[in-house]
Each structure stands twice: as structure tokens, then as C-alpha cells.
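Reply to thread "Modeling small-molecule complexes from scratch"

Following up on the discussion above, here's a worked example others can learn from. I took a protein sequence and the SMILES for S-adenosylmethionine and predicted the complex. Inputs first:
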Amino acid sequence: MMPSTVPPQPVATSPVAPATALHTPAAGPTDTAKTNPHPPAGPNRTPKGPDWWLMMRAFLTQGKRIASFAPSSRFMARKILDGINWATAGSIVELGAGTGPITAEMVRLASPKTRLVVIELDPTLCGRLRERFRGSPNVEVILGDATKFGELLAERGIPKVDHVLSGLPLPSFPAEVRDSILATAARTIASGGTFRQLTVMPLVYYKLYRRYFEAVRFRFVPFNLPPGGVYVCRGFRGAVNP
Ligand SMILES: C[S@@+](CC[C@H](N)C(=O)[O-])C[C@H]1O[C@@H](n2cnc3c(N)ncnc32)[C@H](O)[C@@H]1O
């Protein structure tokens, strides 16, 4: 009997999920991370050059959205992660991961069972992240808008995370967007967890974070370019701009 051949069927393509479609650059994030956490970088996503150059170039071309001209130092990465209980951490989300200095430190410290979800809007920086963490099965790199991280986590079946780490330039975001990110963080962080924000303007925004959180501790990091620090925040008070 002749084997029956099935003609190639049209592949159903789902529209890009709203969470990733909103606030996207012209190139537009794709949703391939849903099926493969480390899709190939692709022709326009194989960044050449060292991390400092990719950050510098992104800063020179995008300015405020990148907020820093250099990747965080190892000292900054250690400081933002200091105190996390890696034995119990089930999942951690990092917003605005850049070239991945903090992600790399998490990979070094975390158990392979801890799920690390990393979101970056810039396609070139995201390409670097995907190259860098391709060999780390517990890292999922998402090319997408971190202001929608609640939806991005929900799409992946993650209702709660132990900590939210943010490299986003939150103070320069419109107040209502900042409110929404912090309210999402408050909803998403499991009991006992923290919201951790890095900065390259030490203590300048302490009052801002105190408006949102009951308890804010600032950790200074002198060995960073430029010197900066980390706000570790607990006890969300509610959105400042309802
Ligand atoms: C100050 S850099 C921090 C990079 C990295 N975490 C580090 O410590 O070196 C801020 C990063 O946030 C990213 N970013 C800005 N807005 C974003 C958004 N809405 N969604 C995702 N990433 C964003 C920028 O592209 C940039 O990589």
C-alpha cells in the first residue's frame, strides 16, 4: 500500500500577545520566547562588540530609556542580590536586564531549580542576553516591554515571584506607568519578597520610593561606573497617582 502523504498544512500563527505588542520599538518584539526560551538571535540580533560598547551605543542613541552608559559592575550585581535566599527562591523576574551583569550573577548563585525571567526591550541588548544565557535552562529571556511584566509572567503561568529586580529608569517614566509597574510588583511578589531597584544617582530618589513603600533601604555601591546603589523596598503603600 502506498503511504498516504499529507500536504503541508498552513501553520496557525497567533498574533503577538498584547503584552509584547504594546510599547514596542519599530522592529517589534516577537513572541517566540513562549515556545523556546532561547530562540536564535537572528540576523539583526547578533550583536558584535563587548558589553560596554553595546550599552554605550544604546545610551548614545536612546538616552533616557537606557539611563546608564555602562553595564552594572559585579559589585552592583552582588549588592542587588544580597540577602536573597537562594535555597527557597522559586522564581525571580528582572526588568531591564541590559547586557546581563545581574542575570549572570543570579545564574552563578541560583539553584538550577530557580526560574529566572529576564525582560529587555532593546533587541540588540536582548540578542546579547540570549547569546549569553543560551546554556542556562533556568533563564528565560523575553524581548518585551517590562511595564507589562504582570501579563508576561501570567502568559507563562507564573502568578508569583520571590523578588522583582529592576534596572528600569523608573523615575523618568510617566507617573502612571511607574504606579502601574509598582502596583504589579506588589501584587506579584510573594510574601516576604522584595522589590529591588538599581540606580546610578545614589539616594536622589529615596523619597520617591518611600512614597510607594513602607520600608526602603538604600545600599551604596561605590565601585560602579558611575557610582550608584540599590533600593530594597518592602510593604507597598499603594499607587501614588491613583
Ligand atoms: C540602566 S540600564 C540597566 C541594564 C542592566 N540591568 C545593568 O545593570 O547593567 C536600563 C535597561 O532597561 C531597559 N529598558 C528600558 N525601558 C524598558 C522597558 N519598558 N522594558 C524592558 N526594558 C527596558 C533598557 O533597554 C536598558 O537595558
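What I'd highlight from this example: The mean pLDDT is 84. The pocket of S-adenosylmethionine is lined by residues 65-68, 71-72, 96-98, 101-102, 119-122, 125, 145-147, 167-168, 198 (CB under 6 Å). Questions welcome below.
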